[in-house]
């Protein structure tokens, strides 16, 4: 069986680009030392834009003060022998503190 023609991929992409923007916020956060998780996050962001989302992409540590309370948040990260990537350490520390506060109540 022959592989699909490259044309079919292009036609799919052009039909996706015709989706009207609805402006729903989509935050794609990543933790990455070697770039793989960042690349996946960027691909998710592009897909979100094609679907009409208002997309923001950033390292996890850029959002240690407050996450948005509207829209969706995707988190893409790697783990290095159980340790967070360099640009996700502060976020992981914050999440750990939040977890302990939740379970204390």
Question: In terms of topology, how is this protein built?
Answer:
Blueprint: H1 6-16, E1 25-31, H2 36-50, E2 54-59, E3 72-77, H3 89-104
Parallel strand pairs: 1-2, 1-3
Structural description of this entry:
- By secondary structure, this protein is of the alpha/beta class.
- It has a single domain (22-104), classed as Rossmann fold (3-Layer(aba) Sandwich), CATH 3.40.50.360.
- The chain is built from three helices and three strands; from the N terminus they run αβαββα.
- It has helices at 6-16, 36-50, 89-104; strands at 25-31, 54-59, 72-77.
- The chain is flat, with a radius of gyration of 17 Å.
- The model is unreliable at 1-16 (pLDDT under 50).
Give the key terms:
105 residues, alpha/beta, Rossmann fold, three-stranded parallel β-sheet, 3 helices, flat, disordered N terminus
Number of domain units: 1
How many whole angstroms does the radius of gyration measure? Answer: 17 Å
Please state the structural category.
alpha/beta
CATH topology tier name: Rossmann fold
Helix percentage range? 40-55%
Total DSSP helices: 3
Distance between the termini: 60 Å
Order of helices and strands: HEHEEH
Specify the CATH architecture.
3-Layer(aba) Sandwich
CATH class: Alpha Beta
Number of separate strands? 3
Question: What is the CATH H-level superfamily?
Answer: Flavodoxin domain
Shape: flat
Q: How much β-strand is present in the residues?
A: 15-25%
**Order of strands side by side in the largest beta sheet?**
2-1-3
**Which regions have little confidence, pLDDT < 50, spanning 5+ residues?**
1-16
